[in-house]
Amino acid sequence: MTTLVIGGTGTTGSLLVPLLPDAVVGTRKPVRPGQVRFDWDVPATFDGALDGVQSVYLIPPVGVVDPAPVVESFLSRARSVRRVVLLSSSAVPESATGMGALPALVRAMPEWAVLRPSWFMQNFTGDHPVAAGVRSGEIVTATGDGRVGFIDAADIAAVAARALTDPVPHNTDHLITGPEALSYADAAAIITDLTGRAVRHRSVSTAEMTDRIALAVPAEFAALLAGLDEDIRGGAEDRVTTTVEDVTGRPARSFRAFFQDHLSRS
Ligand SMILES: NC(=O)c1ccc[n+]([C@@H]2O[C@H](COP(=O)([O-])OP(=O)(O)OC[C@H]3O[C@@H](n4cnc5c(N)ncnc54)[C@H](OP(=O)(O)O)[C@@H]3O)[C@@H](O)[C@H]2O)c1
What we know:
two-stranded parallel ribbon, Rossmann fold, binds NADP nicotinamide-adenine-dinucleotide phosphate, seven-stranded parallel sheet, 11 strands, alpha/beta, single chain
């Protein structure tokens, strides 16, 4: 069964591809065998990417205020596709438009799953602003003492692989967290302990966080992102689920184990 992995070069998709028997990576710039041109901004790429495909790992268009129309158009062309697994987010509530409208589109497919992961542990490594804070010694958020069930993207990929290949379709939403809820200060303390280099967390107001984020992204989007920090401050992400173990048979990786592994690779 051929699976089109949209975002197959990205954080979760690149970890998912090796777990699938027959994956095709959808990318804007295909350069090697097993990759096909796919661009949310170029609907003419949809049919070619869907050719011979029975299932799709769907990462929505990045930075689009209302991705529902283009995702709906894509799915309407996916006539050979039986199963779609959507990467959504624990922080995105259902809504009539915007990211929150996507689960309803996917649930209309014959077989489906909606993944709702909490915040990625990978935000502490790589290009993310939190990772820049780790490198500089100060992580700045508006999350206060709020805790988050940080999740390793490898565990999200493992759940996605099962949702895409299990003979019985999951046809459900999976709320996915790591094994413990940590504040950013807790995470910084773990990093300090593992690296021997001081990393602290500084919490600022939502307004200040909006201004900081707006240096890099449009103001409207900055307010949305800072609002998610405020939600964390209010406890919205202070929860732990057993989804990874329930679906894959093994427990989710801890933040300490994740970061230790990251250090051993870098
Ligand atoms: N970070 C978090 O803490 C967090 C938490 C919960 C949910 N999420 C959700 O995770 C999603 C991101 O997933 P990810 O981290 O696995 O991906 P990612 O690392 O952000 O990678 C995004 C991928 O999208 C592809 N891409 C970019 N623009 C594209 C376009 N116009 N058409 C087609 N593909 C395009 C890129 O591929 P090419 O460059 O090869 O084209 C890239 O592989 C977001 O929807 C976010 O809401 C994130």
